[in-house]
Design a protein that fits this description.
The protein is mainly β. Helices cover 3% and strands 41% of the residues. The radius of gyration is 20 Å and the shape is globular. 51% of the residues are buried.
Amino acid sequence: MTRPTTARSLVLVVTTALAAAALAVPAQAHHRGSAGSPPVVTPRAETPVLHDDDAGGNADADDPAIWRNAAAPGRSLVIATAKEGGLRVYDLDARPVQSIAAPPAAGPDDAPGRFNNVDLVQGLRLSTGRADLAVTSDRGHDRLRFYRIDRDRPGGPLTDVTDPAAPAVFSRDQAEINDQRTAYGLATWTDPASGTSFALVSRRERTSITLLELLPAAGGKVTYRTVRTLDLPATFRLPDGTSWAPCGEPGELPQVEGMVVDPANGTLYAGQEDIGIWRLRADLTGTPQLVDKVREYGVPGVYDEETEECVPGADPGFGGTRISSDVEGLTLLTESDGDGYLLASSQGDNTFAAYDRELADHNEYEGGFRVAPASAALDGSEECDGAAVLNAPLGSKYPHGLLVVQDGHDAPGDGDRPATNFKFVDLGLVLTSLDD
C-alpha cells in the first residue's frame, strides 16, 4: 500500500476511553550485496501460494507469528493470517497443518470476516486453566478473535475460544463496522509486574492505537475491555516551518499496522506506514518518540481522483535514509543478554532494517538485509506486509531460530492472479548478515 505524500503540523492527542508445498533447498545463502546495497539472505522454505480471488478463496497472506513447542521444539508452528481466507497454520517444513475460515458476514450487506494481524499470548489464565493463545484482529467485524493452541488436538491445534459477546474494538454499530475503519494492526503484551495480558490494536485509516485488557470469560472463552486510546500525529511541522501530512485518499489519515512490544521494558514500537517508526510505552502513557522516518517523509503530493493515486512533488530532503514507505512488519529479535534488534519491513525498497533494541543506545540503526531468491522455484520477499522472528532453537531444521516473512508477490506466480505466501529464513543467516 505504498503511497506518495503531501502537507500539515505536529499534533499529538492522547484520549482515554473505557473503552509450498514447502520447498527446502540444500544450501542456503548469505552474502554481501553490491556496493551500496544491503546483504542478502535466502529462504529455506516457503508455504503454498495463496490467491486473493474467488477461485483461491480470497486468501491473501499478511502476518505471521511463531509458536514454540517447548516440549518438542522441532514440532513448533507458524500461525498466519490470510485476510478473508482466515488463518493458516504451518509446520516447520512450511506445510499446511490447519486452515480456519474467517467468520461470515453478520448480514447479507455486511462486511465479511477479515483477519489482518496475529500475535501470541503465553499462559493466559482462562476459567478452565492456563493456555497459549493466538490472537488475531478481525478487521471485517472490528473484533479480536482468540484461538487456544493445543499442538496434538485431533482436528488441528487451534480452537476458537472467543467470547461471543466480545465487543467491537472501535465501532459503535454495524454501519460503522461496514465503513471498515476497524481493528487493523495488533501486538500483545503481558505486564511482568501484574501478570495482566493486553492487546494493542491500531485502527484502519486512522492514527489511533487502543490498549485492551484480555479477560477470561465463562467456559474457557476470552474477551477484553478498553483501557485507553492514543492518537498519533496526522500532521507534522517540517524544518522549514511548513506543515505536512502524507497524501492519501480524501478522509484517510496515516495509519499504523506493524507493531511489537519489547517484553523486557514494556516499550511499544509502532510503524506508521507513511511516516516512520514510533517508540512509546505499551500502556500508552507518556509521549511517543519518532525513532526513524521513511524516505518519503515531507514529500508533498496531490491525490488524483481519476487514477486514485498520489502524484508526488519535489523531495525537500526531510526524510530518513534507511526505510521507504510503507514501513510494516515490525518484529523483535531478542537476545539473552538484553541486546537484540528491532526489525522492520521497508516495503518501498524490499529490504529489512535493523535497529538496536537497547533504549540506552537510542535504537541506533545497525544495518539491513534483503530476502532474495534461493532458486528459480523459491523466490524471496517483496513488499513484505508482516514478519515474525524467534531467536530460540527449533529442532534440527532451525537450530539458530527462525525468521518468517510475508511475500507480497510470490514467483513464478500464476498469470495475473494475485499470489502471496510466507518465506522461512534460517535466523543464523540473518544474524551473520547483521554482524558483518
